[in-house]
Amino acid sequence: MAAFLVTGGCGFIGSHLVEHLLARGDNVVCLDNLDPYYDPDLKLRNLQAVRDNAGFSFVEGDIRDADFLNQLFRRKRFDVVVHLAAKVGVNPSLAQPNEYSEVNVRGTQNILEAMRHHLVRKLIFASSSSVYGGTSTIPFVETDPADRPLSPYAATKRSGELLCSLYHHLWNIDVSCLRFFTVYGPRQRPEMAIHAFTRQMSEGKEIQVYGDGSSARDYTYIGDILDGVLKAIEKVKGFEIFNLGESHKTSLRELIALLEASLGKKAIVAWLPAREGDMKVTFADVQKAEKVLGYKPRVSVEEGLRTFVRWYHEVDRGKFGSEHATVRRSMTS
Description:
CATH topology of the domain at 3-182 and 220-245 and 284-298 and 321-332: Rossmann fold
Distance between the termini: 27 Å
Radius of gyration: 19 Å
Mean pLDDT: 94
CATH architecture of the domain at 3-182 and 220-245 and 284-298 and 321-332: 3-Layer(aba) Sandwich
Order of helices and strands: EHEHEHEHHEHEEHEEEHEEHEHHH
Number of strands: 13
Strand content: 15-25%
Shape: globular
Structural class: alpha/beta
Strand order of the largest sheet: 3-2-1-4-5-6-11
């Protein structure tokens, strides 16, 4: 049994990880500031199933507050920190670069400082495929310098990796930086393309598509990502960077066609100009993760989308009842 701090633990990836850690008998403190980037009640709903678990505790707080973090680390003993908390999204970062820097860079440094002062020596840092930016090397490999970001979000994630490298070098904190490639599945954030398209197509509304539909992403199912995170936790040592992707790229046009097949509905598409900051393609080389971690993605995008659509129709539909207000009161009181 180990003691974990999971920052951003109410979110899409974080809530799944919290569930898995608790199921294997670990103790987990979930730290989240319930940022209103999307509905905080949806985030709290993510952890409804574990709120009564004896090994679980929820702390509402902000990683930008160094004093708060020091108090938390003083009160609790942690063996491992999984740092998922961040301002997310490429496009919003173009309008709010200062806020993204404050949360993603200063917040990450605050986590590292708290770990240094309280002698916590293992960190999993959630990075992003966006750090590859303007690279011409496809598929993306971890040895790429990743020095040409296309958005403030990407720059902050690369900065976080560099801070992790520094704290490993100076203070012997073992860090695995995991570059996630377009994660999807049940509980995916509502503004992300797969979730938004599913909702809009189900309701007979048009979907907005930026560019000509040829842009491609390495869509990675949440179950495969969790497998990679859990393996990284077990093997974190030194400083390492790993791609966690499906190692398969799907164009936007192909994605829409797959959703049409899963939903049994034709998409009504509004074609819009390509957006600044968006990458043309993401595609992970996962050979390092396979060799070092034993990571092996198993869920194809076709299977993963069918599972997501089933979840959407059964659970989500963008609606939830009064029981979730009760969850909010019980977790935040």
